[in-house]
């Protein structure tokens, strides 16, 4: 899980986050830089406040996403399945931002992992299918209304022509064969 947190001043007041904007727009880049400098300043001035906010967010992740009850020390089904135990290490990065490394033990996961190395070929295949189904159930991405601009190579195989397209993310792979097209695309905010 990756969770990035920006601490803003005026606690208790509603904060307006900057729009995603166009990365080619100089004014947008200038505004992003101002927000970055402000956050950097306040992280340095008030590291305790930043740590407190971070710890509150980690508690939300632990209880709501992971599914761990910190009072009873028991798990319920969370985004990864039912946790049996977990461990988290918090670290500070070079830019004075906190991040976590998690190790989470999920119910029945070891059974599946052990079956992947079984001597019985049928059991290995069943374990592999189960593992793939598990990964597909916990790792996914959706981009319901994002529109991106990207260059798509269109042609008959011999000759290709780069064409700039702006389209919903869900349509990206219908015409382009480049499997990295989403990685190369740029979000356009309307």
Secondary structure blueprint with pairings:
Layout: H1 26-45, H2 47-66, E1 68-69, E2 74-75, E3 83-92, E4 98-106, H3 109-115, H4 121-138, E5 147-155, E6 160-168, H5 172-175, H6 181-184, E7 186-188
Antiparallel strand pairs: 1-2, 3-4, 5-6, 5-7
The chain-level mean pLDDT equals 78
How many DSSP E strands?
7
Main sheet overview: 3 strands, antiparallel
Helix-strand makeup class: alpha+beta
Radius of gyration, CA atoms, in whole angstroms: 22 Å
The parts where pLDDT drops under 50 for at least 5 residues are: 1-11
* Proportion of residues in extended strands: 15-25%
Number of helices: 6
Largest sheet: spatial strand order: 6-5-7
The helix/strand order is: HHEEEEHHEEHHE
Written overview of the protein:
The chain has 190 residues and is α+β, with helices and mostly antiparallel strands. The protein is 38% helix and 23% strand. The protein has six helices and seven strands, in the order H-H-E-E-E-E-H-H-E-E-H-H-E. It has helices at 26-45, 47-66, 109-115, 121-138, 172-175, 181-184; strands spanning 68-69, 74-75, 83-92, 98-106, 147-155, 160-168, 186-188. It has a three-stranded antiparallel beta sheet. Strands 1-2 form a two-stranded antiparallel sheet. A hairpin with a 4-residue loop joins strand 5 (147-155) and strand 6 (160-168). It is flat and about 55 Å long.
What are the salient characteristics of this protein?
alpha+beta; 190 residues; disordered N terminus
What's the short version?
With 190 residues, the protein is α+β, with helices and mostly antiparallel strands.
